[in-house]
Write a sequence for this structure.
């Protein structure tokens, strides 16, 4: 069975996307326009949280798999 992504690879991708969202938010910045409206790339904040949560879940799952496999082979 061939997989498109492994769990550690997908976790790394999610953490990279988290950093990209944070860097994009910092690079774009926010400002108040002439009408008094705040202009900011707000969508990047929840996306960064989502990618971080997915990355953490995948990393924890991959770590648990490694620990379980080591336990099985040592027993």
């Amino acid at each position: 069975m061939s997989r498109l992504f492994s769990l550690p690879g997908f976790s790394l991708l999610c953490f990279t996307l988290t950093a990209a969202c944070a860097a994009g938010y910092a690079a774009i910045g926010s400002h108040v326009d002439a009408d008094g409206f705040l202009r900011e790339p707000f969508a990047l904040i929840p996306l960064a949280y989502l990618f971080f949560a997915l990355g953490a879940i995948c990393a924890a799952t991959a770590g648990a798999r490694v620990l379980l496999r080591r336990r099985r082979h040592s027993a």
About this structure: The CA atoms of residues 2 and 39 lie 45 Å apart. The first helix runs from residue 7 to 28. The chain has one domain: 7-74.
